[in-house]
Amino acid sequence: MPHSLGKLLKQIRIDKGLTQMDVSRKMGFTSNGYIATIEKGKYEPNEETLQKYADALGMTFDKILKVRQKGRLMDMGLREDHIFTEMMRIPILGQVPCGTPSEAIEEADEYFPMPFDEELAKKKDIFGLKANGLSMKDAGILPGDIIIIDPYAFVNNGDIVVAKIDEDATLKFYFERGGYVELKPANPDFKPIKTNDPSFRIVGKVIKKITVQNYT
Predict the structure, then answer these.
(1) How many CB atoms are located within 10 Å of the residue 33 CB?
(2) Integer Cα distance of 34 and 57 in angstroms
(3) In the chain, what are the helix, strand and coil shares in percent, each to the nearest 5?
(4) How many CB atoms lie within 10 A of CB 41?
(5) Which of 27, 91, 174, 205 is 20 to 30 A distant from 60 in Cα terms?
(6) CA of 156: how far to CAs of 74, 97, 137, 202, in Å?
(7) Any idea which residues carry the catalytic annotation?
(8) What does each C-alpha distance from 46 to 64, 127, 136, 146, 182 come to in angstroms?
(9) How would you label 60-71 residue by residue, b for 16+ Cβ within 10 Å and e otherwise?
């Protein structure tokens, strides 16, 4: 099977507007034969050559190593659109019910790997919870989905939040009414929760939902 690394390096070269000869000269070669051989998948360069290749393409060595890793995974049969070379990990703090409030937020015991998201990476102390229940199904949140929570995000009426009453947590649409808070489900089979309990607090706002099976 041809090395997919060559295909990836060729695409990077083309995207940067470089010819094979441009890259060859930057690497100290007088012809484009060596670059053509690599791009055809007939030869995988060693790390010393990859360093020169990275310099010629204007990439960091770390980046080109990740491209090589992606190529090897493609050679193993993984689809290119299922491979992410830049990843981040979100701490999962347990489960949150999408129905009647119940104790749900726990200490982190696992992490969820996902493609790197520049906006999420800028946020402080974000965490994930696994949805459990069907009361938010019409909002596209189903059991097993990962919801990403920002504990510092400003909350408006209509936002989806994780809220606690005493030590019971729930996931609902948030509405501030005159003198009380209403937590509304996204499923007509469930009733809204109305409360003016002084223990009520918002744990955080849902800023992203991940349907887990899309990443498996």
Answers:
(1) 11
(2) 15
(3) 30, 30, 40
(4) 18
(5) 91
(6) 44, 21, 21, 12
(7) 135, 172
(8) 12, 39, 51, 40, 62
(9) eeeebbbbbebb
Residue 2 and residue 44 in contact, taking contact as beta carbons nearer than 8 Å: no
Within 10 Å of residue 11's Cβ, how many Cβ atoms?
A: 12
Q: What is the pTM of this model?
A: 0.61
Radius of gyration of the chain (CA): 25
- How many residues are listed for the chain in this entry? 216
Strand 127-132 with 160-165, pairing: unpaired
pLDDT in tens, 95-107: 888 777 665 555 5
Burial 81-99 (b: 16+ CB within 10 A, else e): eebeeeeeebebbbbbbbb
- The 8 Å CB, 24+ separation contacts for 18-25 are 18/56, 18/57, 22/56, 23/53, 23/56, 23/57
More confident residue, 34 or 87: 34
11, amino acid identity: Q
